[in-house]
C-alpha cells in the first residue's frame, strides 16, 4: 500500500481491469472527445493507482515515467472530498507537474486550485466546416490507402520526416496499414505525405486525423490537402474527424485551420 492517511489510501491495481469501469466513467465526464493519439501514445503507457477513501473505492489517478500527473478522477460520491485527496496525493507522490486538458473540468479545476504556473501544451481541434479548396499544384498526385507491400517505404518516410525517438514507427505504421487507416499522397513514385485516420474504439463515432509532409515539400498546402481528403473519408464512413497539434507546431496549426478545423480546447502544462 503506497499511500495511507486516516481516510485516504491508494495502491496499484493488479490489473487495469480493476479500474476499467472508473476509466469509462471518466470518459463520460469529458466535455468533448479527447485526442486519440494522446490516449494511445501517452496515457496507455502510464502507471495507474486506485484511490480508496475510508476503505471504499473513490477513483484513480495515473502518472508517467517522469512522475507527471496525467489523469485524476473521483466518482461523484467522493468529489466533495477532492480538496483533501488531491493535495494529499501530490505531496505523498512528490508530484510537481501535471498535464491536463480543458476537456476535463473537474481535474482542471483541482490543478488550478494548487498550481503555480501553467502553459499551453497542445491544441485540440474539431471540424467546423467542409472545405473545397483548389490545389492545382497537386493535380498529378494520387491519394490512396497504403498497401502492405508499401510498408518498408512508408516506415522509411516516417523515419526521414519525424523527429525524436523512432522505435514506435515500424509497429505503428504496420498496424495502421493492416487496419486500412493509413494513406499516402504520391507524385509518380515519390511519397509527398502520409495521412492517418484512426478510428477511436473508446470514443465512437470519432476518428483522429494526422498527417506528415515530406520536409522538402512543406509550406505548399500539402498538409491541408491531406486533411481535407481524410475528412471526406471520415464522413463517408460515418465518423466525425478530430485532430490536434502541439503549441510549438505553428505550421501544422495553420494547415489544420485551413482545412476547416477550429480549436475550442487546450492541453495544458501545470506546475505545482
TrEMBL record:
InterPro entries from the UniProt entry: Acetyltransf_19, Acyl_CoA_acyltransferase, GNAT_dom
List the CDD domains: NAT_SF
Annotated GO molecular function terms are: acyltransferase activity, transferring groups other than amino-acyl groups
User: What positions does the domain N-acetyltransferase occupy?
Assistant: 141-272
Q: Which residues form a coiled coil?
A: none
**Gene3D superfamilies, from UniProt?**
3.40.630.30, 3.40.630.80
The name this protein carries in UniProt is N-acetyltransferase domain-containing protein
Give the species: Thermoflavimicrobium daqui
